[in-house]
Amino acid sequence: MKVILTQDVKGSGKKGDMINVADGYAKNFLIKKGLAVVADANAVNMKMTKDAADRHHAAVEMQKAQDTAKELSGKTIKLTAKAGTNGRLFGSVTAKEIAEELEKSYHVSIDKRKISLESDIKAYGSYSCEIKLHTGVSAKMTVMITEE
User: Fold this and answer.
1) What's residue 76's pLDDT?
2) Are the CB atoms for 115 and 127 separated by under 8 Å?
3) Does domain 2-66 have CATH number 3.90.230.10?
């Protein structure tokens, strides 16, 4: 009997997979527990529609990430900070502060965990950072720290 899994089933497949299983296993276990539905024409059509919508959504997200990467690549973010007489900052500049400045300057909302710095920012100067926007899509930017 052909069924479409509604949840991951260990040893059988992942959610959304269409698999062929024994009638008893399908009726007495998978369907009864709500782990699968019978793969009739309606269910197959719904699965194909959902798969197409998921592919379209993924393509739109990828395009959006590539556009954002083009916009941000090579740009410089300027931040100000207080420092002591030797030029060392009081504290350090964090990815959170960089994300907030990106939001202000470029109107792009980026999670602070997606920003990776080559080294800690603890003094005035220029630093490079990489922003991971999507799988395989990233933008390299420069962060310039100046005196407040």
Assistant:
1) 93
2) no
3) no
- And the tokens for 112? 């602070």
Asked if 89 contacts 123 with a C-beta cutoff of 8 angstroms, the reply is: yes
Judged against a pLDDT cut of 90, whether residue 118 lies above it is answered with no
Q: Which CATH superfamily is domain 67-147 in?
A: Ribosomal protein L9, C-terminal domain (3.10.430.100)
Q: Which structure tokens are listed for 55? A: 């592919």
* Domain positions in the chain: 2-66, 67-147
Please give the helix or strand (H or E) that residue 79 lies within, else none: strand 76-81
* First and final C-alpha spacing in the chain: 71
Predicted TM-score (pTM) of the model is 0.70
